[in-house]
Design a protein that fits this description.
One of its GO terms (biological process) is L-proline biosynthetic process. This is Gamma-glutamyl phosphate reductase. It catalyses: L-glutamate 5-semialdehyde + phosphate + NADP(+) = L-glutamyl 5-phosphate + NADPH + H(+). The model has no long low-confidence stretch (mean pLDDT about 95). The chain has helices at about 5-20, 25-40, 40-55, 60-70, 70-85, 125-135, 150-165, 185-190, 205-215, 235-250, 265-280, 290, 305, 325-335, 345-355; strands at about 95-100, 105-115, 115-120, 140-145, 175, 200, 225-230, 260-265, 285, 300, 315-320, 340, 360-365, 385, 390-395, 400-405. The protein is of the alpha/beta class and about 425 residues long. It is built from 15 helices and 16 strands. The strands form 4 sheets. The protein has a 7-stranded parallel sheet with strand order 10-9-11-8-7-12-13, with helices on both faces.
């Protein structure tokens, strides 16, 4: 039996126990985990420094270093995120609906845990605590496999969470961490069908593609974010500029940042110089031929640029002749994550909402809001870009399934 199979067995046993805990018992354990994180801040930061030093030695980009970095404030935010999950209603045991059928059976649909959830992710240590707390609150055991970039940070974080569980009389196997970061072990996890109920990958396009191609375990695809903002001819341009600036520069290394803006030709001459001035010496601009006519310091965009999630201070710009052209471009190149239109034209906004195929579609707001915390979920396990089971930011309910409960009074089928 491999080490991963042992981990799977331990997770299955723990999931059975975890599914029986009351909401108050789970909340008590979550509070203990949050407190333990804050008390161990120095230990966590020391481990994170090891990861940062290794990343800098490899000349990792600044945006990627930001994803990896932990600070005292971020540790506090991680702990508070766990506390917020504890405050959320417990979905387990909730009955979504009940009805009587023609035979007078009382039929209900009740929320139950998925069971054992595997998470494969890259260089964001906060995913460790978000995933652990959401899985725990929803009654699921979790097996975490982080990337080698954040190995020391993730290892310490999971150890702290496990010790908090053990100190409060619960199995540490509810939250487990795979210490082998090899591709071979990752591939084995993707095929751990005897123990995993679902696998959720979080990371770049390469990771998502590898999981889809390799996994025999059911996968919930959390996608990359090649996101767009369309500035309509009826847009308020100062508002559009503020939204574009936020969506591109507040944190360009995350999946809900934008990579391309589409600008209606009727406002391009006024809006694009505003963009260039706003982003001077901060964002590299790549425009199509029409856009270059209004920009002084931009290079010609390539076909590859339209399909790229830059995760950096790079913005592609295309001038379009109509709403129809904008929608067609988005549906061709997007990753079905987050898309936005800036307009005061109600009918244009409604058409955009209806025709754009994405998990989150905005009118007059930044795509940076596509986030479990911002949606009121406390945290998120990921942002699903597929259409089966769950779509968009995945909170507690997305980590549950249902079973039918049926009450009878001696009925038999004739």
């Amino acid at each position: 039996m491999s080490n991963l199979q042992t981990i799977g067995q331990q997770a299955q046993a723990s999931a059975q126990t975890l599914s029986l805990l009351s909401a108050s018992e789970k909340n008590h354990l979550l509070a203990a985990m949050a407190d333990a994180l804050e008390k161990a801040a120095e230990t966590i930061l020391a481990a994170n420094q090891q990861d940062l030093a290794a990343a800098k030695a490899k000349e990792t980009s600044q945006t990627m270093l930001d994803r990896l970095l932990l600070t005292e404030q971020r540790i506090t935010e991680m702990a508070n995120g766990i506390r917020e999950v504890a405050q959320l209603p417990d979905p387990i045991g909730a009955v979504d609906k009940m009805w009587r059928n023609a035979d007078d059976l009382l039929i209900g649909q009740q929320r139950v845990p998925l069971g054992v959830i595997g998470i494969i992710y890259e260089a964001r240590p906060n995913v460790t605590t978000d995933a652990a707390s959401l899985c725990f609150k929803s009654g699921n055991a979790v097996i975490l496999r982080g990337g080698k970039e954040a190995f020391h940070s993730n290892q310490v974080l999971v150890t702290i969470l496990q010790e908090a569980l053990a100190a409060n009389g619960h199995s540490r196997h509810a939250i487990q961490f795979i210490e082998d970061t090899s591709h071979e072990t990752a591939a084995e996890l993707m095929r751990l069908t005897d123990y995993l109920d679902v696998l959720i990958p979080r990371g770049g396009a390469g990771l998502i593609r590898r999981v889809k191609e390799t996994a025999t375990v059911p996968v919930i695809e959390t996608g990359t974010g090649n996101n767009h903002i369309y500035i309509d001819q009826a847009a308020q341009l100062p508002m559009a500029l503020a939204i574009v600036t936020n969506a591109k520069t507040q944190r360009p290394s995350v999946c809900n940042a934008i990579e391309t803006i589409l600008v209606h030709e009727a406002v391009a001459a006024e809006f694009l110089p505003m963009v260039e001035k706003q982003f001077a010496e901060q964002v590299e601009l790549r425009g199509d031929q029409k856009a270059l006519a209004f920009l002084n310091n931009a290079q010609l965009a390539t076909e590859e640029d339209w399909a790229t999630e830059f995760l950096d201070y790079i913005l592609a710009i295309k001038v379009v002749a109509s709403l129809e052209e904008a929608i067609a471009h988005i549906n061709r190149y997007n990753t079905k994550h987050s898309e936005a239109i800036i307009t005061d034209d109600y009918f244009a906004s409604q058409r955009f909402l209806k025709e754009v195929d994405a998990a989150a579609v905005y009118v007059n707001a930044s795509t940076r809001f596509t986030d479990g915390f911002m949606f009121g979920f406390g945290a998120e396990i990921g942002i699903s870009t597929q259409k089966l089971h769950a779509r968009g930011p995945m909170g507690l309910e997305a980590l549950t399934s249902t079973k039918y409960i049926i009450y009878g009074e001696g009925q038999i089928r004739k």
